[in-house]
Amino acid sequence: MPSPKAKNPGRSGGSPVLGSSNGRYEFMSLTKPLNRSSPPLLLQRQGSDPTTARLRASESPTRRRGSSSSTGSGSGQGLAEEDGIRLNPSFIRVALSSLLAIDLWMSKRLGVCACEDSSWGSVRPLMKLIEISGHGIPWLAGSAYCLYKSDSAAGQEVMLNLLMGLLLDLVLVGIVKAVVRRRRPAHNRMDMFATFSVDRYSFPSGHATRAAMCGRFLLAHLVLAAPLRVLVLLWAGLVGLSRVLLGRHNVTDVMFGFWMGYCQYNLIEMLWLSPQTLQGLLGQLA
């Protein structure tokens, strides 16, 4: 009977430090692959060095992933905030858009005299007569005629400044219309009396500015009885109302025109010209 194989004394005895072959202790060869079960002495020494261990821990993939994830989350949060700021419109823009929508809706509903077949089409001729009463040409012609026929110095002074105010109104309204360039309402019919190039724009209403300015001027510089003063105020209000009823302007055009004409009168008072001042200016130019 064959005798059993003798056991490997290297495996039965004490385990070698770096590995053994045939029970003999030997150093690990550099040409042999590393035994993954027991790490080399060099790695053990590196792991035992506290400084090297800290450096390796700082360069560990887990820490790098954590730092990259924190950086990515921070940048993602910043992008989300930017998107929120960009997507959320400002309160002022929303308010202006809402006011514009209300203005267009009200102007369309109030344009009851825009054409003959409108609900108040029979009142259209009267509204057009009021429109002509607030036009610039009749006021310029009337002021120039009164200035020419006036015999008193006080009358000439009043008519002179009224004429200057009307010219100033034409210039300021033309500048604002050319800058804003707001189109007239869609239901408007371009059958106005004596229009010019800037009259195709709607904002502000030149009739409203002229009515407010001339109304304040007449009440301040003419001695009028109480019924006449009421008629002046009523005329100014009807001029502005006729612009909306005829579909010429939106409501905000007329409201801003009234405010602008009110302020124009204050400017006329600041630039008030007396006959002596005018003669002095003409003498300097001559």
- Multimerization state: single chain
Overall, the morphology is globular
Order of H and E elements: HEEHHHHHHHHHHH
Which stretches are poorly predicted, pLDDT < 50 over at least 5 residues? 1-23, 40-48, 62-70
Residues in helix, %: 55-70%
Largest sheet, order of strands side by side?
Answer: 1-2
Overall number of strands: 2
Q: Output the structural class.
A: mainly alpha
Calculate Rg over CA atoms.
47 Å
For the residues shown, what is the average pLDDT?
76
Detailed description of the structure:
A two-stranded antiparallel ribbon has the order 1-2. By secondary structure, the protein is mainly alpha-helical. It is globular and about 55 Å long. The protein contains twelve helices and two strands.
Keywords for this entry:
mainly alpha, single chain, 12 helices, two-stranded antiparallel sheet, 286 residues
Topology:
Blueprint: H1 9-12, E1 20-21, E2 24-25, H2 41-48, H3 50-58, H4 61-87, H5 91-110, H6 124-133, H7 136-149, H8 153-180, H9 206-221, H10 226-245, H11 251-270, H12 275-285
Antiparallel strand pairs: 1-2
Brief write-up:
The chain has 286 residues and is mainly α. The chain has helices at 9-12, 41-48, 50-58, 61-87, 91-110, 124-133, 136-149, 153-180, 206-221, 226-245, 251-270, 275-285, and strands at residues 20-21, 24-25.
